[in-house]
Amino acid sequence: MIEVRNLVKKYGTHLAVDHLDFKIESGRIYGFLGPNGAGKSTTMNIMTGYLGATEGEVLIDGHDILKEPEEAKRHIGYLPEQPPLYVDMTVREYLGFAAELKGIPKAKREEEITEIEKMVRIKDVEHRLIKNLSKGYRQRVGLAQAVLGFPEIIILDEPSVGLDPKQIIEIRELIRKLAKNHTVILSSHILAEVREVCDHILIISKGRLVASDTPENLEKMLGEHNSVEIETGASPSEVRLILKNVPGIEMIETQEKDDGVTWARITEKKGEDIREQIFTAFASAKTPLLTLKAAGMTLEDVFMELTQSDTVPDAFITKAKWEEVGTDAGDL
Q1: Within 10 A of 171 (CB to CB), how many other CB atoms are there?
Q2: Which end of the chain is less enclosed by CB atoms within 10 A, N or C?
Q3: How far apart are CA 96 and CA 104, in angstroms?
């Protein structure tokens, strides 16, 4: 549905986007991640027609965003980080104005605006001036204008920035609801939010794509070793003695807490899952486990690994490239 080909954006001598290639397929929620200065917002602005590219092209449902902007933009709803609101208008006036700009037929405008107001829960403030609304309601109004016309693709740049926890949860629920009928591209610095709602993640660093996969696969692929965390009333030395004959253990870290409970992280050999053996070992020793949980690499760990280092593991690049172009794995 969206195809980014060899995209380059330069500001003078600064290369903001460096020959970027990826595809966005229908029916998914995509997380678009990158540290500040990675080229994330620049890429999104080019994808939505706000900026021109130095080189390359962006195809929206087969239409070039630069050569056929009007047709391409029909398929996109965009919420920038700072919603483009006219604060001296009421909510209803503003949405009517946005609907007219989008070319929604006059006979359908009122009905569609009402439907969208109910969807994003702003019907109760439709006659209030936007400048008198809270940050959360303003964000909802911006989202409403993005959804107007029911475009196939909804692009959201930091939709939950500045919101309180309750508002963040409500925005997440709304994104999930939108994803039932739309393809959603979500940019956010809140990695827990991305992990919670996204089906697929794209990570860029220094203007280049460094990862493209599901959150689960990203965590598995960079985590060479999984680990298990336990808490028990046994002493650190007793923990090590109990685990002495459990196969598949790479390393054991222990720490005795003030309350007499011992915390331990048990690193597994690659490809092993020893949770059952750990449980059985402690049960045989008649020593109860207070907690036992898997503790693999998190999305935060993946993000830091890929965006702070100058290189990416070869195997990981291969997987990202395979996802990106749909090449048969045997050809790489």
Answers
A1: 22
A2: C
A3: 10
Instruction: Give the residue from 73, 24, 85 showing the smallest Cα distance to 48.
Output: 73
The secondary structure element, H or E, covering residue 211 is strand 208-213
pLDDT in tens, 33-73: 888 888 888 999 999 988 999 999 999 988 999 889 888 98
Provide the CA 282 distance to its chain's centre, in angstroms.
Answer: 39
Q: DSSP letters along 240-294, please?
A: HHHTTT-TTEEEEEEEE-TTSPEEEEEEEPTT---HHHHHHHHHHTT--EEEEEE
- How many residues make up the chain in this entry? 332
Distance CA 254, CA 16 (A): 45
How crowded is residue 30: how many other Cβ atoms within 10 Å of its Cβ? Answer: 24
Q: Find all residues with CB under 8 Å of 150, minimum gap 6, and list them.
A: 112, 181, 182
- Give the number of other CB atoms < 10 A from CB of residue 110: 13
Residue 203 C-alpha from the chain's centroid: 9
* CA gap 332, 327 in Å, rounded: 8
- Residue indicated by tokens 């749909």: 326
**Nearest Cα to Cα of residue 78 among 226, 224, 185, 195:** 185
Strands 14-24 and 200-205: unpaired
pTM of the model: 0.73
Q: What sections of the chain are H helices per DSSP?
A: 40-47, 69-73, 91-101, 106-119, 135-147, 165-178, 191-197, 215-222, 236-242, 275-284, 299-308, 314-325
Cα–Cα distance, 46 to 19 (Å, whole number): 13
Tens-place pLDDT, residues 157-192: 888 877 788 888 888 888 888 888 899 999 887 787
SS3 assignment, position 104: coil
Per-residue DSSP letters for 169-192? HHHHHHHHHHTTTSEEEEE-S-HH
